[in-house]
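[step 3/7] fold_predict: job queued, chain A
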Amino acid sequence: MERVLGIGGYFIRASDPAALGAWYRDSLGLDADEHGLWRQEAGPTVFAPFEAGTDYFGSRTQQTMLNFRVRDLDAMLAQLRAQGADVAEETQDMDGVGRFGWVTDPEGNRIELWQSA
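[step 4/7] structure written:
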């Protein structure tokens, strides 16, 4: 059986694609080239379907949520707050999994940040 090798891309609608791309670059350090290619560090990726009625993604109209691995969750959240980003006050700790925090991008998409255990 053939299998997928990993996430090949994540595509997101935006009313201002250039501004949203700049936000991801300037706020999260996602340095993609002119074609959107970004070389990420090796590490785990979680694929997990959620119940249709979940509030975990924020708005019920948001069908997916992007999760980024981060080295230092507290430092990343502080950086985002200093830039005026919409950062959730709460964080979550999961034994053996790591710590989680959330930010909402300028287009209203909730993003999860994960510091692996």
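[step 5/7] annotate
The longest strand covers residues 98-104.
The two ends are 32 Å apart (CA to CA).
exit 0
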